[in-house]
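G., the chain you wanted modeled:
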Amino acid sequence: MTGLKNRRFLMHYLKYAVNWDAIGGHPVSLLMVDIDYFKRINEQYGSSVGDQALVHVAGILKQISGKNGIPVLSAGDEFMVLMPGMKKQSALLLASELVSQAQENLFFSSEAGTQIPVTLSIGAATAPDDAATATGLIAQAKNALHHAKSSGRNQCVDAGIATRQAVQYLESASIVGRKAQFEGVAQALKSVENGISRFVVVDGAAGFGKTSFLDVVQRNLNKSGFHTVRASGIPQESFRPYYLMSYIVMALMNQREDKGIEILEQMDESDLENLACILPQIGETDITVKVMDEQRREAIFRSFIRFFIALADGGGRLALLIDDLDYSDPASLHLLRIIMMEKSVVMFVCATAAEDGRSQPKAIPLSLFRSAYSETLGIQTIRLTPLSASEIEKHIHIIFPGIELPDPLSQALASISQGNPLFIEAILRKMITDQKIVQSGQRWKVTKLEKGYFPKSLEEIIHDKLLALDSGSQRFLDCASAFGESISLSMLTSVSDEKSALVHDFLNRAVDQGIVRADFIENDETIRFLSKRIQSVIYDRINPDQKKNLHEQIGNYQEKLYQHHLLPSAAFLVHHYTRSENQEKARIYEDLQEGLNRQIFNDHEVVRYQAGGADEEGPGEAALGDVPLSATSRAVVPKLLQSLLIAIRNTRLYPPESKSVAGSIDMLRQLVEKVLEDTGRFSIITEKKNLMMNGQVVEAGNFQSIAQTIIDFWDRLQLGSLTFVKGLPEAELKIVLERICRIEPKEITPQFWKTFTEEKQLQYVIPRQVRYKKIEPADDKTIPDTAGPVDRLEPEISTSIAQGFNTQDTILFQRIISALLGALSKLKLYPAKGPVAGQAVS
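Predicted structure as tokens:
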């Protein structure tokens, strides 16, 4: 309509056409232009007259910019003028001329039948004078525009003399309270620099800044000369084999000047045909008409590895940064495992994962993968801890230097937010909006806070933010939340009924409210909610019928993309149609996707894939079984667990050569072998008081007491798991059972079971010891033990609670515990309804 360049052009130019490393010698200026009171024009004369006003202003921008500037329509009534090579003074002269021309060039609307005054407010910023990055340049121009509007409009303001807004200080604040965690990453990077690959997983609860942590890691890697690739786990895709690694591979291809064409041309036809099964962009292949056997599936796996190595080779040190690894698919995890074991590429893998251990039903639980291969891959765990009151106070002082804080403020923020950084930022943003944090002269201060001022939850703040937005912005966020936590702006615009310029306007408002962030990636903006909690709060408030309509609308749009081979899989369609009224399409696409999944990957086979060129993983390797048990094997589990307890009891009570011992061990071995026929390796694991078999929680049902006995027994022996490998000999089973029965807890040192396994040269029954996290002193408790992988975390005791107990309390606690142990003992020896047990319980 306006004939101007669009927002995507602007973002692409700033990212790819500007050399920010040499910005000192090649300045770039930016004008942010806003039509004053544009909303009034739309309301008084109608949107078509508003459109004419936009065209009128666009004409002025084109005329004045000439050859020196590139005018852009960025959002609804927001224009920008990009001026490569132009210094600050020239940009200000051009901005001043724009303001004058708008005043002198009267806008006449034939439809309205009258002249309508149109004036402009302009913010001007220049790099490197005002900023050193694209986002910084836009933020400075925006801040200057805000000053132009608040100072009376119809003028231009230079970012260099505009006072920064409090929100800007908040948004530009660095991360605090993460020194120990960054030191853990630095240690891992030292190993990478010495040619040793490292795998780091950053754990944190929702809103604890996992993505922001990864952002800082990425910025430092870029400065250190790493070849960096960023990807994210996607819930909708988590059961599609190879999806995560395919996104990583596509990013590697796009980073190459030739988009990876040269490497593809060097690969043989069989490799290309295999790759096309995963990456349809590479070539046409209809795998639905072919019958894939195990040999072909492994060939696909190997071809993908060869292609990845070829792409990564020659690019220097490779860093893979993965958000939400807990939404990964099993095939991608195993690809990473084999690539790291083969040592063909030196890699630094840094991924984030939610502490709540979320996983999709059809995906291998990440916690199991980490337990299974923590030693083999050297997986290092770094935990993002809650911010303490002192860290919050330090954070506020960094944002607002010299601010006067009321004594209990930081402690109150720590208590209300439970140290959640996202919640703390939301509260500070609210305080800024409510003028509770203000600048007085050259100093910042906190004005009086009424009793009950602080919101009780993050959800309460989000609801207040939504109420502050207009209906169009709310519809925009509803649609975005139905897509998921992250979505491309082009998809969101295509599904929306609004004009693209208005969608950009809605986006700007949502960003200003601190609800979403926008990043320009691969020629498109990616919209990401600041937290899954924010996305879920917005999604949950949509009424059920509207949700179904949204998902069907999104499904119909994505179905067209899929039919034109512009969507990587039908998994997205399954996700949206399942949540819509159209269950028939949900079933059709689910059957289609599951059929394709089975053709190209089988999680029962992948355990047999060995790392070529590396030491082969022998039976005695301490990897846990990670292939889900079949229905047949699950039916054997109750009898197997009971048989295990009988074998342990008989081995303890009777001579080794007695029939009772031999018979019970033989029965156990037969049941174990029955399960191993299906999986090749399986593990009995205790994790967070759950009993698991190959990562699946055992539904105890009628044999709850058996399951609990094993959990207690494993805990007493400091066993995290007991793994059985196919080909299990009876002699080895006897050795392990003998040791389990005769060991005393006081004999178990931190390396006891590992030493025992090595001394006895165990190959088919592998006990794995629990690893405990080192507890630091109270004043240093946020520093994690990053020396090695951590399977379990000891609970942290609140010192504030502990200090509230007096001597009388602690004496009483000892008596309670003593009475509890006494009651347990009596219930084991006497009838539950008898007087002895009854008295003990009483």
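The two ends are 83 Å apart (CA to CA).

Shout if anything looks off.
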